Amino acid sequence: MKPTIYDVARAAGVSTATVSKVINGTGRISDKTRKRVTEIMEELRYQPSMVAAALTRRSTSTVGLMLPDLANPYFAEIARAVEDRGHEFGFSLLICSTDNDPSKEEKYLSLMVQKCVDGIMIATSTGQDGLLRELAEQRMPIVAISRELPSLPVDTVMVDDFMGGYMAGKHLVGLGHRRIGIIAEKLGASSSPERIRGCRQAMAEAGIEADDSLIAEASYTVDGGRKAAARLLGGGEPPTALFACNDVLAIGALQAAFERGLQVPEQLSVVGFDNTMLATITAPPLTTVSQPIQDIGRRAFDALLQEIRGEKRTKQRLVLLPELVVRRSTAPVAGGL
Amino acid sequence: MKPTIYDVARAAGVSTATVSKVINGTGRISDKTRKRVTEIMEELRYQPSMVAAALTRRSTSTVGLMLPDLANPYFAEIARAVEDRGHEFGFSLLICSTDNDPSKEEKYLSLMVQKCVDGIMIATSTGQDGLLRELAEQRMPIVAISRELPSLPVDTVMVDDFMGGYMAGKHLVGLGHRRIGIIAEKLGASSSPERIRGCRQAMAEAGIEADDSLIAEASYTVDGGRKAAARLLGGGEPPTALFACNDVLAIGALQAAFERGLQVPEQLSVVGFDNTMLATITAPPLTTVSQPIQDIGRRAFDALLQEIRGEKRTKQRLVLLPELVVRRSTAPVAGGL
DNA sequence: TGCCTAAGGTTAACCGCTTACCCTTTAACA
DNA sequence: TGTTAAAGGGTAAGCGGTTAACCTTAGGCA
């Protein structure tokens, strides 16, 4: 049987209170006693039970992380960043993949409450009513990552999607493109609309009229991107450049181009978004708008931690700047400027 | 304040024991009482605390998952598979990325013990002494995923690495290749050696002599693979085919080929291993040995669950068969057979 | 010498559930 | 009518820690 604090106390000839104080470095304990207790703990290979401690402390040192799919590289990278930052402060993670399924969201949210997480990070577009709203109103620490939960009193850490879209658009316009297709995620609550708006702003500044026939919706998969791109490229007057609202979709676009025998970037430029590791391994490597994923994960955790510790009075909204990473999937429009 | 079981009991005019029985469906409770208690719980929005329950039940319904890096697609996919299977049975996951750093491994192992996980899944090559051995000997449920822990009494779920290597080798040999370079992970305890052995077996059967100058070690990154491939391709009599011990390394090989101006597959064939999503997005798409990742995750969890429930007497070693997925990165050797 | 205080511990209640065991009521049955 | 037993629920002792409050001792100081 695993030794308990009682075993340690008995062996050391002290009370459990003393042992507890030694473990936590609280209270006043003489060096002599501290040393003896420490030795006994070592000897018994004692590991304090965090679940018992959690019960009295009313804190589990665990935070929940809800995301659409852990197998998606973007979210896996986010999760890793949060994990690392959390561990630095002694927190561990309860990760749940929702597949953007509202019923799973609700179920996992409830799980997190039952497991008594100290706070929740949400990287999934989610219903803003039901349990989540209830929790937010009860002041459960919550931070939204990369997606907004506009009607809820929670912290938000995200990238400037509009600016990112603008950068992508500007880049393409600068290369002389005037027919620019856009591939967007389906989800209403996703970040695509802002990215699109940004891209169109850049186009508008160059005097290019918005053309809704140049926007295609896709499901959040490579294949979704491929099909959407195929639709755009198969149209009457096909675009010379494609802006995909994330790297996964951009990869689909690359594939669609390949299938039509279009050279990238000579005959078609492609820009992605996120700058996941995927962008570095495509051929050609993908020009993309880079999200500071490490930073997002870290800041999001830090914000949550402040909430947990009650160090904050007001909800904050942190918007980080994206950066354009030019690789080899974009080039001046065919035929020159 | 969150309502407790006492609040529910009081409001329903019953004892906490009764409420507990209603929650867990144990004991004998009349329909009338059950209904009343259920209604009160709903009304109070009561969520039972799993941490309190864990303390008395001595079970947290949580399993630990140790892997090298959650941001690595292969492990992210494993994690996702385990997560899904776990949730089916009411278990959640405590994920820790070790970066193959022995000190982190030890630290996270200790964390898992303190958090009282019901079992541990290890997908990281790890020191087999220290805490892990101790736990294994104390019959803590443990299963090794994809890597063996030979000297420890634990269950193992893995793919037949030898066979996978053999399939890759056979495929290349069948295409007429005779100079086949191999890119291996560095780590001693990794699965590379078996994969290499399999590949060489296939070569030997074709009458090709082993040539150690055709093996290059790489760190587990795209860049590592790129450098290793560059070394092999830069040699005196360069190989016409490359077998990389995983997809990440294979992608590096693809890049190295591109840099040298070698056409894949016309001038160089490349085979990977794992069949992660990466293999589908490279250009050309990667021929690779497929691991049944879903299956591995699922089986591994099932084995662990059996251990946890004490339904098993003997340790088992489950070896799944890989499958060769031929895409477009391999072709008959230049110059024909 | 007497009083005060700091140092170093101890006591015991409590955290929110679970569960072995016990008690009461009622119906069945001989 | 008395006996049993099943049904339905209550009692209370933990689970392994934490912590407020309290106790004891000894040194400092007037």
TrEMBL record, chains A, B:
Q: Which InterPro entries match?
A: HTH_LacI (IPR000843), LacI/GalR-like_sensor (IPR046335), Lambda_DNA-bd_dom_sf (IPR010982), Peripla_BP_I (IPR028082)
HTH lacI-type domain residues: 3-57
Top-level taxon of the source organism: Bacteria
Gene3D superfamilies registered for this protein in UniProt: 3.40.50.2300, lambda repressor-like DNA-binding domains
Question: Does the record's keyword annotation contain NADP?
Answer: no
Which taxonomic lineage does the organism of this UniProt entry have? Bacteria, Bacillati, Bacillota, Bacilli, Bacillales
One Pfam family assigned to this protein is: LacI
**Record's protein name:** HTH-type transcriptional regulator DegA
Keywords of the record, alphabetical order, are:
DNA-binding, Transcription, Transcription regulation
